[in-house]
Amino acid sequence: MEAPNDPRPYAIAEPVDPLVRRMLARNPSPFTFTGTQSYIVGGGDEVAVIDPGPDEPEHIAALIDAIGSARVVAICCTHTHRDHSPAAAPLAERTGAPVIGCAPLTMADEGPRADAAFDPSYQPDRVLADGEALSGDGWTLIAVATPGHTSNHLCFALPESGILFTGDHVMGWSTSVVSPPDGDMTDYMASLQKLYERDDRIYFPAHGPAVEKPRQLVRGMMGHRRHRERQILRQIGEGHTRIGQMVTRMYKGLDERLWPAAGRSVHAHLIDLAQRGLVAQSGEDWTLAA
């Protein structure tokens, strides 16, 4: 889906909950929709910033202005793609706040989008394990480990408001790209099931609108991925044994710029299907398992 052309409220702190303000970075693209959304959590003297975004001076200055005189307790990153975490270091330098959240992950990414490359500058002061919490004046953030989109992906729950900040794991505008070798479809599906079993009231993703019926969306996303599995098995059965062949048939109408990303997700499905004994690989070709 393309980002809309209408003006967006960039660099403006928009209240979306008594404890949360949302700010949009000016980095729209076919992969980021209108841009990366940073969240300022806390309505009192202590706040946290979730997904500070790209290292863009306008965005960082707007975050500093919105934070005002409050003390930043933590700068939290859901994962370390370059549209999410690079602003953590300059924001920490300006505020003195620790960077707390996902683990660092530095690896070569020859993927289909430049902003999906991993951020080598990310150096957290504290890594949160699943279920670990941090707190400030009137709020608590609890880490929810959700590997799949990346192996280090975390969501953050705000129990005082029933909010889950979902990063790139669940978005209302698009499905998440699962790109091997780090992206893992088996983990991604397990993480979706994990969220489906929770009772969060609303999701705030890093891209796109809030998700007001989260369990309904997650159920649909799991169904969508199972549908893709069936498509892939059918394509192989019809003799379309290479990923490129599958993409052009399965993603009709998709912007061709997104075909490489679609190919990565197909590859992730194939790896998962192979691990389950349903397909086998021979060079660039995939076959149904005997």
From TrEMBL:
<feature type="domain" description="Metallo-beta-lactamase">
    <location>
        <begin position="35"/>
        <end position="207"/>
    </location>
</feature>
<dbReference type="InterPro" id="IPR036388">
    <property type="entry name" value="WH-like_DNA-bd_sf"/>
</dbReference>
<dbReference type="Pfam" id="PF17778">
    <property type="entry name" value="WHD_BLACT"/>
</dbReference>
<dbReference type="InterPro" id="IPR050662">
    <property type="entry name" value="Sec-metab_biosynth-thioest"/>
</dbReference>
<protein>
    <submittedName>
        <fullName>MBL fold metallo-hydrolase</fullName>
    </submittedName>
</protein>
<dbReference type="InterPro" id="IPR036866">
    <property type="entry name" value="RibonucZ/Hydroxyglut_hydro"/>
</dbReference>
<dbReference type="Pfam" id="PF00753">
    <property type="entry name" value="Lactamase_B"/>
</dbReference>
<dbReference type="InterPro" id="IPR041516">
    <property type="entry name" value="LACTB2_WH"/>
</dbReference>
<dbReference type="InterPro" id="IPR001279">
    <property type="entry name" value="Metallo-B-lactamas"/>
</dbReference>
